[in-house]
TrEMBL record:
Name of protein: DegV family protein
Organism classification: Bacteria, Bacillati, Actinomycetota, Actinomycetes, Micrococcales
UniProt KW keywords: Lipid-binding
Superkingdom in the source lineage: Bacteria
InterPro entries registered for this protein in UniProt: DegV (IPR003797), DegV_C (IPR043168), DegV_domain_contain (IPR050270)
Amino acid sequence: MSVAIVTDSTAYLPQSVVDAHHIHVVPLHVVIGGTEFSEGVDVTTSQVATALRAFRPVSTSRPSPQAFLEAYEKAAAGGADAVVSVHISADMSSTVESAHLAAKQSPVPVHVVDSRSLGMAMGYGVVSAALLAASGASAEEVAAQALSRAAGARVVFYVDTLEHLRRGGRIGSASAFLGSALAIKPILELVDGHIRPLEKVRTSTRALARLEEIAAAAATAATGAVDIAVHHLDSAARAEDLAERLRTRVPRAHEVSVVELGAVVGAHVGPGTLAVAVSPRPAPGSATDVPQEG
């Protein structure tokens, strides 16, 4: 059986990885000042950051079922007997719903996976799924691998302000921080698809130090090697500095990469955001062992 992998643009996988593993990516959409753009196609993160700083209206929307159906049909035309479609947490976006609707019309069976995650925490799961699919595994095994690796990741992040999360309705229980938002710098985490408060500190310097400490501790606690992705929105220098410190503190990390957040997630977290995804790797030598992604 040939199993194709489909994901959405919020995995933020480098294009080289997408191409190497023949992954189909369906873009979400961002609307800036009434104009709709496709993430990763015709809008940049700097455009989103500029719009947010200027308080221009910015919103996001899921892909249409038709966009997913076209991806599934393309996979089938390319010889796939089944599709595993891995997506951003259903509690953050209704993207999974569009995938399910499209799956009903697909010419081949589609296993839709709600990753309960986003960003490279989901992306590493997508790559592991693609590697397992290439080894000849069944669609059920591939889907289980995608979910398992995504669920095993620890995601912590810092935002300069909670305002963008509040406006987008993605703040969840982290709204407990709003009462003192002017006096604190929040550290948040993603747990089972939800944003939850983790810590609040008084300065951005201390918040970034704690982000590093938490990520390093998560990597150290993992069994075996890990992959680490440092995400940012319009904060490349701080992200590179954090990544370099994590390379020093976690020498057994297989890779520590810097990946800019795209327009969709960036619209909800705002400029200055830093996030770290710590993803334990499958056992060395297994079919799902993920190679260096560059």
